[in-house]
Amino acid sequence: MNEFRLGLRLLFGAGRGNRIRFFLMAAGGSIGVCCLALVLTVPAILDAHDGRAAARQPVTSAKGPADGTLVLQRNDTYGAASFTRVLIAKGAGGTQSAPPGLAELPSHGQVFVSPRLHDLLREAPAVKALLPGREAGVIGPAGLAHPDELYAYIGTARARIADKGRTLKGFGYTYTPSPAVEPSTLTDVRFALATLVLLPLAIFLSVCARLSAASRMRRLAALRLLGLSAKGTQRVNAAETVVAALLGAVLGLGEYWLLNQVMSRAGLPGLRWYPADGSLSATTIAVCLIGCPALAWFIGRRSARDATVNPLSVRRTTAPRPPSKWGVLPLVAGLGIVCGFCASGLMGRPASSVGLNALLVVAGVVLTGVGIVLTLPLLSYVLAGRVARSTQSLTLNLAMRRNEAEPGSTMRVVTGLVLLVYVASLAQGVLIQLEQVTRPSGPVQSYSLPLSGLSEREQRDVTGVSGVRAHAVMMNSWVDLDADQASLASSASALVATCAEFERMTQRAEGCVDGKVMRLVDPNSSVGSDLEPGTPFAFRFRTDAGANRSLNVTLPADRIVYSGYSGSAVGSAVLLVPPSAVPSGATPRDAELLLAGSSDPGQVRGVLNGIAVVLPIAEVELVGLNIQGLEQISVVETLLALGMVMGLAIGAAAFLVSVTDRAVERRAQVTAVTLIGARARTMRAVQCAQVVLPLSLGLIVALVAGKLAESSYLITGGGAIRWDLAGVPLLVLATAGVVALAATGSLPLVGRRIDPELIRRD
């Protein structure tokens, strides 16, 4: 305890510079702890979302009391959001328990809505048509998965839902049918967040724990020479590092609390939560308050080993020991694993991510990242020695000799930026893999709307929505079921569109002639292959005056050979009917309006929101995709974007903290070299070269290792894309930007004011 108090007295009594460095350590640690708490809380936010969604699920039975309460759930869409309506017909028998968020079951004519739906009814009154009754209240937070959810409980008459309703037994499932993120996708997200945030975070916290390491080691060596024991010296060192880490952890938890309050109210794209969902758990608090000081103590103990074992080597300038070569082993092991998976892809037998391979992929990625960090000092030492021995430049000689003397200092400066490039490559692979899993397999997304009830103006407005690049009408033929078997015609679907519209909805179309009814043939599909030319089809229409009309079409011999997009609604059509053949002023009785646009999730959401503006209560079907899947894509993209932003912030913070501390630590050396005649321009070039050369070498290693790790992840993922060549130019450009940033940040490290007293200060 005496040594601990001595460490605190030395800390606060050793001048303003030491106190500033202490608070810099605490501030840097607080940023890291805030990011760590955010990463650890993301699963809790998703679990809270799924927990409330499961707790409100109606538990029903096909059999129950004759006068029991009936329930019917409808899942619709409004724009790009799910719209859930729960119709409840109260009965005298059975359960009377209310769902979470309500005090009692709604009576006939009562409607309870979510806050977002309450606001929407004011913005779009047409939505009221989906909610028969009067608004009687707002659903509480316990009954909503997230604040922006569109949800409603509607009290109705038993006769209205008697045919489809089921007897209500209560509310609450042990699982949710529509989780915020599917478990398999959540595994990929956790892996991405771990590589994007946690790996750079560990380096950043270690950098903060070793700020002003050189001056602290000189103080510890002096205490050791004065007779303090080795263990006592370690405890003196722990006083500064552990107290700074503990203060940083407390500040970081406070910063997270404020960030949670702001972000939960403002929300992120596709992700909203209540402030209580992101509250700090006991586990998170324990990890931050115990784990971060423990990490700081371990790093401080390791860094103070030389000062306690051989204090004379610290007090006097001695020949530096080369970095250990054992640090290369994790890099070799990690690259061996990822190269093995890459080789399986090159040989045409890609390994799957089943069983042991799943663990090996994660181990390969982590070992490669850790190996890069541990290898950087050795690479910097070797590069500095070879350049210093071969160069004739004074600038390079000064720069490389300093790096050769302190390879660990260089590592602390450049490691954060090197890891940033490495995890950026991995992030590209995770995004590609998630896109292959969650997005439609084709580049085109189709939308289907019932044509009945749409006026000509509404059709014109909805086809003009931004993002819709083609449209057509899909009508189904009418079959007289009362006719005898001999005259019973086959049924078929016809596409009403021009050749230009049809070509925009398909990959390739050959033989289309405007103004003619033509047969549609897709060589990759069997639709209509059993139909013979001359087969008649009848299509029924209704005029504006209410009269019925019909259009008889015979299957022609003229064909259009086309290739459709995967998941497109066009594939079910047998005929292409020109718009001129449709009776004027008539609407098909059994038809749908088809829209086509890009399958990019952002474009899909834009089209759905545009449709909602024109047709607030339209029933829109996403062909090959559901709204829940689209919402999951939005959540996953938001989480990955959040991880990339945190990784960027951590990498930039590590660099800024390191270069600032490096400038303070080397003031005496810079002053000495300046006093013997070196110009400020030369010193700035020296400082820049000390950072840029080892950084460039580390970035090359990170770029190559990152692409190999990314490819191994894509190969084991089983997707169509295994080699992300398209992402190389962007990554190279980002690497060049990192080098430019480092060079710019190194220029101000040489001050204009020269203080000779710095040479004499200890």
Write the layout of secondary structure elements.
Blueprint: H1 2-13, H2 16-55, E1 58-61, E2 70-78, E3 81-89, E4 110-113, H3 115-123, E5 134-138, E6 150-155, H4 158-161, E7 166-171, H5 183-209, H6 213-225, H7 230-266, H8 282-303, H9 305-309, H10 311-315, H11 328-346, H12 356-390, H13 394-405, H14 407-438, E8 444-450, H15 456-463, E9 468-476, E10 493-496, H16 499-504, E11 508-510, E12 518-521, E13 536-543, E14 548-554, E15 559-563, E16 575-577, E17 586-588, E18 591-598, H17 601-614, E19 621-622, H18 627-665, H19 667-675, H20 680-717, H21 728-746, H22 757-760
Parallel strand pairs: 3-6, 4-5, 10-16, 12-15
Antiparallel strand pairs: 1-7, 2-3, 2-7, 4-6, 8-18, 8-19, 9-10, 9-18, 11-15, 12-16, 13-14, 13-17
